[in-house]
Amino acid sequence: MFSSRKDILTLIARLIIGGIFIYAGWVKVTDMPTTIEWFASMGISPLWTYVAAYAEFIGGIFIVAGFYSQVAAGILGVVMLVAIYKSRAMGLEGFMPPLAVLAALVMILGNGAGSCSLGRCLPEKFRD
Q1: Of residues 24, 121, 21, 23, the one with CA closest to residue 72
Q2: Which terminus of the chain is less hemmed in, N or C, by CB atoms within 10 Å?
Q3: pTM
């Protein structure tokens, strides 16, 4: 299952980053009226609020499972770039957390999900 230390570290990174997105997405999805109000204060429409919230939740699940993790990381990277841009007025406190998560997503984009992933159960053409 684990062929190298890199696979173990990639799995740990996936669990942490995916878990962050699952939690953050779940908080947004389960209280959508508050989320819409909060996003509206940053000039984000309700449609894009739904897109971002569900992208975080579902994308986090995909990253944890190692299923199309690079696609999920790419989509979530775009969400984080918007978060960095929208939170820039808050200074370091605002944009450092999404920047840190973006850096982790870049790592997943470069390495894929590793050998311990749901994606490894798929035929070669569907793997990261």
Answers
A1: 21
A2: N
A3: 0.81
